[in-house]
Amino acid sequence: MEFSVAADAFTEHLSTVRRLSAATVRAYRSDLRDLGSNVGHSALESIDLDALRDWLWWATQRGDARSTLARRTAAARSFFGWAHEQGFIDVDPSLRLISPKKARTLPTVASHDAMEQLLDAQRIAAESGEPISMRDRAILELLYGAGIRVSELCGIDVDDVDLDRCTARVLGKGSKERVVPFGMPARAAIGDYLTRSRPALLARSSTSTAALFLGSRGSRIGTRAVYGLVADVLSPFVGAETVGPHALRHTAATHLLDGGADLRAVQEILGHASLGTTQIYTHVSTERLAAAYRLAHPRA
Q1: Does 78 share its domain with 130?
Q2: Within-domain flag for 174
Q3: Catalytic residue at 250?
Q4: Does 143 lie in the same domain as 59?
Q5: 33 has catalytic annotation
Q6: CB 136 within 8 Å of CB 193
């Protein structure tokens, strides 16, 4: 079987059988196309460990980041493991392919004071009754209050929110559903938005939608619009030029741990499959503690 044919079948399997997100499937497809450009029209059976190592070596020569190399190694392993399971190849050449370790960088996190200032400013802006300002306040309160991903926020329908219980039902990675809690400020912001803002936004469209958050034209808001909103309001508070909605998720997780939340509880709230993914926030909390110590202790 030709490599490109097998790669197409694999990405179809990821989409229809494993039901991975469209973004994840695109990433796998991109990585396998990069590998395909290196091995040409080779038969799948002819690709060995040396060919895979050559592919990664060329990637380092053109300056690919460690994180990119690690992702491509993972894509190759997943693909060849699947091909072996399907009986397309007798031996999996990726078994001894070593993945370069990612350089660990701590996520961007806003301080407690910064979040108070940001959300206070949004509350004051929303008091004008302007629909977009009210919507933006509700979005920011929910992103920070529930620690959800931007894709999860954009996918929420009105019926997914229970204001009495202060919970929202979201669809996470791998189409896994979970219920996340949020606090009273988010409850108030969402309640005001539903009563006074959403009807006005919905009237701008000729069709109805079940979406909770609407764009300026009355249809379901997109991730790009939320990225723009968060970048505009959060960048001045964290001192970073490029910052997106995930920074609010990082901030929520770190503040939960700072407040004494159990690591496994934070894992469930965030929807992480592995506790190891959540543990990065313990490092953030430790760094913040160490910074406070260095500033305050006379023997630091």
Answers
A1: no
A2: yes
A3: no
A4: no
A5: no
A6: no
38: containing domain:
3-85
The active-site residue, picked from 149, 187, 198, 250, is 149
Asked if 193 is an active-site residue, the reply is no
List per-block mean pLDDT (blocks of 10 residues) for the chain, which spans 300 residues: 90 90 88 88 86 90 85 92 93 86 70 93 95 97 94 96 95 87 95 97 94 96 94 82 82 87 87 81 66 63
How many Å apart are CA 127 and CA 229, to the nearest integer?
18
Look at residues 111, 122, 87 and name the one whose alpha carbon lies nearest to residue 6. Answer: 87
pLDDT of residue 142: 96
User: 18 an active-site residue?
Assistant: no
Instruction: Please check whether residues 68 and 172 belong to one and the same domain.
Output: no
**For residues 255, 258, 263 and 269, what is the CA-based torsion angle, rounded to 10 degrees?**
-20
The whole-model pTM stands at 0.67
Co-location of 187 and 80 in the same domain: no
Catalytic residue among 123, 135, 249, 250: 249
pLDDT at residue 243 in the model: 80
Q: Is 13 a catalytic residue?
A: no
